[in-house]
Amino acid sequence: MSRSWVRTLGNVRSFVGNALGGLRGGSNLASWAVAGTLAYFLWVKPQRELKRQQEERAALAAANDPYRYVEKTKPIPDPQERGVIYGNKGQSKKPDS
Length: 97
Fold this sequence. Notes:
Blueprint: H1 2-19, H2 26-63
Region (Disordered): 71-97
Transmembrane segments: 25-44
Keywords: Membrane, Transmembrane, Transmembrane helix
């Protein structure tokens, strides 16, 4: 009974080793390092550089747009009580009693 988990562990190690290409030790580590380095320089780095360039272009386009809207001050609230009704300036609200 106690040997069954040892055998299961050995089978799992064997399966993982075979799935990783069957290499063991230093050659396995070296092959994974080479593969990871190639993947970084062929896929990850170019993708990051492309994204950075696109963000820079978008920032330059936004900065050079003379018609873009920039809020410089807070809007002044309408002093009228009921919005844009021009004849209501001199009247005050009657209290409910």
